[in-house]
Amino acid sequence: MSGLIGKKVGMTSIFDENGKNIPCTVIEAGPCVVTQVRTEEVDGYSALQLGFDDAKTANKAAQGHAKKAGTVAKRKVVEFQDFEGEYKLGDAVTVEVFKEGQFVDVAGTSKGKGFQGVVKRHGFGGVGQSTHGQHNRLRAPGSIGAASYPSRVFKGMRMAGQMGNERVKVQNLRVLKVVAEKNLLVVKGCVPGHKNSYVIIER
């Protein structure tokens, strides 16, 4: 599966040929450097390791690893198995691996929301009414299990807790535009993460 590491620039909207307004996300995709080539003979599988975005500081191991590819240490390094095309150590992979009109999958880390209640986290409607004597149960989850049997709360019960800050993949996003000279990729819809967060684009 071919792919690329990118950085989310932000969202905008463009008009198609019929005048319809389409929301889209702009991604700075690459250029990525091939930092390692995995082969069946040596590693037991074939893959390309790509590096993106120069690191300001790096340990000696990362610097030595990048030096073999003739580049500097990278902040984000990702492996793509069964990469299409022939590449060797130190080659640059640009946004031109994508074509307008094709569909891609974009994975990233979603925005962290902190500790949230069941209404925001799971879409509960809340219990009770604002009248009839209750005063603080409007956004409560309600019953989470019976008392005498089973005398416990089942695993997987939807309750309040940490929300967001997890890996999310959005599939089948159409590529609306490829701006090769600026390394920009414009895809339809939204992708996970905040601005300037790293994303992985696969096709």
From TrEMBL:
- Entry's Gene Ontology cellular component terms: ribonucleoprotein complex; ribosome
Q: Transmembrane stretches, by residue range? A: none
PROSITE patterns under this entry? RIBOSOMAL_L3
The record, for NCBIfam families, names:
L3_bact (TIGR03625)
Quick check: keyword Electron transport in the entry? Answer: no
What are the alphabetically sorted keywords of the record? Answer: Ribonucleoprotein, Ribosomal protein, RNA-binding, rRNA-binding
Q: Which GO terms describe its molecular function?
A: rRNA binding; structural constituent of ribosome
Question: Can you say what this protein is called?
Answer: Large ribosomal subunit protein uL3
How does the record describe its quaternary structure? Part of the 50S ribosomal subunit. Forms a cluster with proteins L14 and L19.
* Pfam families (UniProt xref): Ribosomal_L3 (PF00297)
Organism listed in the record: Leeuwenhoekiella blandensis (strain CECT 7118 / CCUG 51940 / KCTC 22103 / MED217)
